[in-house]
Write a sequence for this structure.
């Protein structure tokens, strides 16, 4: 249920876009994200950093889109989010010696720091690639293609990369468990 709640603003954006236009969809995204954050706050008495970043970027780029009636701003939001996630992963690891991927998954499995570092860098690169692809699709293809890419393409890529990361980490853990002890 929590996963559905995470994607609800995106689903609302898509439905409103298909039935009205990009500006109504942007307004709906902004409203849905605010409501989503309010519900998370009431339920948990706090918001995660990722939620706060997303909220600020949705309101900032959505507000610019609505004010200037220019869809380029909402298109840039996707790249800005991906860039901030990539920067966050790299700065937390190499600036503060905290591997965010390890912090999220380290309770589930024990692996050497080198493996966690590879996963961390892989996710940072993944976010950079997603941001770059978003720019390409957003500004070289019709709006309809971009909306479909934003909703289905990026989501599909993220699910596949999550699955690939899980397989990689699981195999690394299995290799360590099967390694003869000296």
């Amino acid at each position: 249920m929590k996963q559905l709640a995470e994607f609800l603003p995106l689903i609302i954006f898509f439905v409103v876009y298909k039935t009205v236009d990009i500006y109504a969809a942007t307004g709906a995204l902004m409203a849905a994200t605010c409501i989503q954050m309010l519900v998370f706050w009431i339920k948990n008495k706090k918001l995660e950093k990722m939620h706060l970043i997303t909220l600020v970027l949705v309101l900032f780029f959505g507000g610019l889109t609505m004010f200037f009636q220019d869809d380029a701003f909402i298109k840039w939001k996707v790249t800005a989010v991906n860039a901030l996630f990539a920067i966050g992963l790299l700065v937390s690891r190499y600036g503060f010696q905290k591997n965010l991927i390890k912090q999220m998954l380290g309770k589930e499995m024990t692996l050497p720091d080198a493996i966690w570092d590879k996963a961390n860098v892989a996710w940072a690169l993944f976010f950079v690639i997603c941001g770059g692809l978003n720019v390409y699709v957003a500004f070289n293809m019709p709006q309809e293609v971009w909306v479909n890419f934003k909703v289905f393409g990026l989501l599909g890529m993220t699910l596949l990369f999550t699955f690939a990361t899980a397989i990689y980490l699981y195999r690394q853990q299995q290799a360590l468990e099967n390694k003869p002890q000296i």
Remarks:
- The helical segments are 2-19, 22-44, 49-68, 72-94, 100-105, 113-140, 143-178.
- The chain has a mean pLDDT of 93.
